[in-house]
Amino acid sequence: MPERDDRIFAGDYKEEPYWWEAFRPQAIEAPALPRRTDVVVVGGGYAGLSTARALADGGIESVVVDAGDFGSGASTRSGGAISAGLSIGKSFTGKTLAYEPAFVREVVGWSIAAYRSLQELVASEKIDCHLEQRGRFLGACASAHYDALRVRHDKLRAGGATDCHLVSREEQRAEIGSDYYHGGLVLETAGKLHPALFYSGLLAAVRRRNSITLAGQTRASKLERTGTGWRVATSAGELAAKHVVVATNGYTSALTPHLQRRLVPIASHVIATEELPEGLALKLCPKGRTFSETRRVLNYYRLSPDGRRVIFGGRARFTEIDGRQRARLLRRSLLQRFPELAGTRITHSWQGNVAFTYDALPHAGCFDGLHFVVGCNGSGVSMMPYLGDAMGRALAGRLHGKLPFENVPLPSIPLYSGKPWFLPAIGGAFRALDYFDERIR
């Protein structure tokens, strides 16, 4: 018999991010767009704002256009986990990807640099966003998954990530108050922050720089090459620019067909619980870790900054779904891991789009004169500000060394034109494979 709604949903239940209790998206509209600027940045998330900030510090003017309010996209909708490690094992299709050891070392180096860059950004701009380095526990959902983690552990250490170590099933209670997993992998160079407060601080830093124009509720509708650069048509008028940077990630549209055919937007769903009884949160999360797992249809979770709620996310479905259905599905997964939360109700439920690439890597570069920073693959909190900053420095002539991922081709996806028709089938197949894996736990 299904549970009654009053046992699942708190009386003040909201279908919006829990993070918005501290910072809500900002309706920033430019009085009038300039006729000309040096750079137009399309997309006002972490990557877009970081690009504009770096451009300003290099003496370059920019206009940042966003189709919605600033902060309404994925930058304030994530779980807020950060780490110095990218997933370089499998693509979103489940295809196993093999990379040369030298390339793995390069990717690990960029990941570590992104993590450190985030800490430097928070410190230099004095952003109060509850940044903590408490490490991450990656749980093995089946015994065979633990064997795979051994291989991943060895590759990471060989690539330079010497901060990771394996945890057996017998030892995992020191990391997490659950017996759900078959052990796991701990990455110490990992942590968490309040994603909306981080965005708020980054937005404030951008607004302090006079050479940046912010134009919210302004949709870019056409990009056209000219002899001296670009003509950008928007819902607020046209402007000319020397360069255009596209930083739309999981919200990439037909404005840039080349990118749209190479990015798959997958919905990530999240819930927040009501406040837990005193002491229970510490039992569930004794070291303040963030948590993720080896399932194909994975979940990720953490405690809220005040240590009183569980923020629990995952692929309840690979596409957008009804808010209450989303909450029920995620709560079911939460209780599988922490049965003692059976009486805990949900206060918030939300979703946002994550952009996945066929090679499971983020990308920054230039195609046919158009610059882009896209493809966070779930690592956007640290990687998107890092790549945006690098792109801005590069355009301002202030980047020492090469742009990360610049020479890594952004691959097309077979039979994909920009509409992810295959996601329900992939989601169903993955759930079936996870079920069979875990039946022989």
Summarize the structure.
The chain is α/β, with parallel strands linked by helices and 441 residues long. The protein has helices at residues 5-8, 46-57, 101-124, 143-158, 195-207, 257-260, 280-284, 323-337, 380-395, 423-439, and strands spanning 9-14, 36-42, 62-65, 81-83, 136-139, 164-167, 184-187, 190-192, 212-215, 220-225, 230-234, 237-246, 264-273, 290-293, 299-303, 310-314, 346-356, 363-367, 370-374. The chain has a single domain (5-436), classed as FAD/NAD(P)-binding domain (3-Layer(bba) Sandwich).
Description:
The protein is an alpha/beta fold. The protein has a single domain, classed as FAD/NAD(P)-binding domain. The protein is built from 10 helices and 19 strands. Strands 2, 3, 9, 10, 11, 12, 18 and 19 form an 8-stranded mixed beta sheet that branches. A 5-stranded mixed beta sheet has the order 1-17-13-16-15. Strand 15 (299-303) and strand 16 (310-314) form a beta hairpin. Helix 3 (101-124) crosses helix 9. The longest helix is centred in the N-terminal third of the chain and has 24 residues, at 101-124. It is globular, with a radius of gyration of 21 Å. The mean pLDDT is 91.
- Summed over residues and divided by their number, the pLDDT gives a mean of 91
Structural class: alpha/beta
DSSP, total strands? 19
Characterize the biggest β-sheet. 8 strands, mixed
Task: Count structural domains.
Answer: 1
What string gives the helices and strands in order?
HEEHEEHEHEEEHEEEEHEHEEEHEEEHH
> Strand portion, in percent?
15-25%
Name the overall outline: globular
Q: Please state the CA-atom Rg, rounded to the nearest Å.
A: 21 Å
Residue share in helices?
Answer: 25-40%
Assigned CATH superfamily: FAD/NAD(P)-binding domain
The name of the CATH architecture is 3-Layer(bba) Sandwich
| Stretches with pLDDT under 50, minimum 5 residues | none
